[in-house]
Amino acid sequence: MLKTLTKPDTLIAAALMAFAAYLMWHATALPIGWDGARGPGGGAFPFWLSAIMFLAAAGIFMRSLLAGVRPEDLKPFFEPGMLGPVLAVTLALGLTIFLMPIIGAYLAIPLFMFWYLRFYGRNGWPVTLSLTLITPVALFFFFEVALLILLPKGITEPLFFPLYAMFF
Amino acid sequence: MEILSLLGQGFATSLMPLNIGIVIVGVTLGLFIGAMPGLGSVNGVAIVLPLTFIVPPASAIIFLAALYYGAMYGGAISSILLGIPGSSTAVATTFDGRPMAQQGKAGLALIAAAGASFVGGTISVILFTIFAAPLADFALKFGPAENFALVLLAFTTFVGLGGDDALKTIAMICLGLVLSTVGLDLITGQPRLVFFDMPGFYAGISFLVLAIGVYGIGEVLWTLERSRIAPTVTAAKVTYAELRSAIVTLARTWKTMTFGSVMGFFVGMLPAAGATPASLMAYGIAKSTSKNPETFGKGNIEGVVAPETANNAASTGSLLPMLSLGIPGSPTTALLLGGMVMWGLMPGPMLFSEQPDFVWGLISSLYTANLAAVLINLALIPLFVWALRMPFSVLCTMVLVLCIVGGFAPDQRMHDVWLILIFGIAGYLLRKADYPMAPLVLALVLGPVMEQSFRQALIAAQGDVTTFVTRPLSGMFIALACVFFLLPLAAKLRKHRHAVQSG
């Protein structure tokens, strides 16, 4: 029983059921039925669709439970040995996004690239350094100079004042 | 005749120097993206869309359409040279493309793929030109009830024809539709589903955030998990003699090509079908109607030609309902639609009367994109061979950095970048558990249209739900939707009865 409950298929269906229930609860903040002359209330569409999603997920959940553990369920959900790399890249991405408003995109992104290219991808120094150094320059000219979209700079903001003076 | 003069005016737009340049850049970029294993047109459009702010909206759409085209051509390159499909749309091309490469005929296979793509693209663009305006005219009669029924029909094709698990498809459609309601209510303006009272949710969840998450970060994680061993690249040279003999061989396959183009175009129009099933179907039919079917899978050139005409024709086909009805025929066109809405060019019948310059400019640009794609494809083959040797980690960093920056750029909010990461992880896990991603993205794009038309129709009918079935057109769409919806059930019943009879 525990094995059928902890199958990825069952777990994901259960998570979707929980999320659908949360969405249904959230949608009830606005009327979910007929709202006078304004027609269906603002909560109706999200509420009833979340309800259908809940039922669909419940169906998947029940089906998965009733099917028991079949041979194909025994093969690992992640390719053997590949969960580590996937987790490492995900965490590095999270850290990069976390650091962007603090140390600025122009430090956080090259740091990420440096780690990925050199330590994760095991590329040589020429590839690593050239990409790590060219990318921020290209980003600056494309987004800030051409599109006037300012990327977050955090504490590195003062370093950009001379550049602003030059280009704007 | 009227079509020809409109098309002529369109060429006046698409042959402007800026737009020619844009088509060339778009096609080239698309070819590279398509050629990279793991990245297809939908990933390319999702990742590159934020960069198109640099040109005016009309040119941006022309650029993305050119990229879409280029990616369809490019998919064949890695199918042939690596034996790994550049995207799912080029899976069928590996069946005979790879054996040809192993027999030392990689050059011939690449030329055949490019030539077939060109034929498929051209025939389908002609069909597109003929059908686009009449379909839009027809759609002018649609009211809210018809629009709702049509969107519903689009979703039920996923349940009936998508080939994925019906319950999982329904769950994803509903999730996408509910996520589209986050933010301010369209009619009353009240906030709803503002999770954890975070101000970032008041503006809603942009389709781009979901698309970059799922097709950018999710795709990289997905490919990362499967990319332990680097594949070997087959060398390919294209000589003039080969080019000439390839064209002669291609001409002999005109029946396969014509059939693949027409079928691909119509299959491509269906939201759930599209280029992947179209190419597989074309391959299957070419094989079963061939005089020597046993040579298929061993390097028969028709096995390259059939899927390549069909997948290019399907990509044009999927543009037709997007432009004329506002219902995208594929995830990639869903992103194009989202982009057009963002730029204030609402696709649908009104666009044809209000912005004819843009519509016909776009249609005529498909002709130029097609021509540019075949020429650039053939000219740059050595470059593709070189690019395919690029370490996978280099490609991954580029894509991930573009995802982060591209997700931030449109609204300049870190909130969106975090959402991209969350959608990326969730999309990756859901995809591993066989949940289809295309209906999720389509639902988020179509959600506002669906809800608005549903509520308007009900208000107009004073709450009478039968309005959806009593109006003839809407009733017809609903009836068709029911058929699609019940298809998986019928298939199951038949299988069950079969099992009972034979058991």
From TrEMBL, chain A:
InterPro entries: DUF1468. The chain crosses the membrane at residues 45-66, 86-117, 129-151. It holds the Pfam family TctB. Residues 11-152 form the DUF1468 domain. Keywords: Membrane, Transmembrane, Transmembrane helix. The keyword Transmembrane applies. The keyword Transmembrane applies. This is Tripartite tricarboxylate transporter TctB family protein. The lineage of its organism: Bacteria, Pseudomonadati, Pseudomonadota, Alphaproteobacteria, Rhodobacterales.
UniProtKB/TrEMBL annotation, chain B:
The chain crosses the membrane at residues 20-39, 46-69, 75-95, 107-133, 145-163, 170-189, 201-222, 262-286, 325-346, 358-386, 392-410, 417-433, 473-491. Residues 21-442 form the DUF112 domain. Keywords: Membrane, Transmembrane, Transmembrane helix. InterPro entries: DUF112_TM (IPR002823). This is Putative tricarboxylic transport membrane protein.
